[in-house]
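Translate structure to sequence.
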């Protein structure tokens, strides 16, 4: 567990810290993963909404990756799924429906 105060983190930092905690190793994400987090935050509208979605998806996906013997996990493996869920939610709620 980290000793970083969550209240001191930006939204991007909070989401990144959550992912790093789930992975159980490392201190930062790749540039590509940070870019994905930025995009997801725009689509979600808030870190809380994104964290709820990630908590629903990531633990099982990370565990499957570990069971398959993969040593590295990238958010690219869940990117399409996360974006699809965010866009579907946004269609229902009138939020952003595309980000290029």
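Result:
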């Amino acid at each position: 567990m980290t000793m970083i105060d969550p209240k001191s983190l930006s939204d991007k930092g909070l989401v990144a810290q959550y992912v790093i905690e789930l992975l159980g190793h490392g201190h930062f994400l790749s540039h590509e993963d940070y870019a994905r987090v930025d995009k997801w935050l725009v689509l979600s509208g808030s870190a809380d909404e994104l964290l709820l979605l990630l908590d629903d998806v990531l633990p099982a996906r990370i565990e499957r990756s570990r069971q398959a013997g993969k040593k590295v996990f990238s958010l690219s493996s869940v990117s399409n799924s996360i974006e699809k869920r965010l866009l579907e939610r946004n269609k229902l709620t009138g939020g952003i429906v595309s980000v290029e």
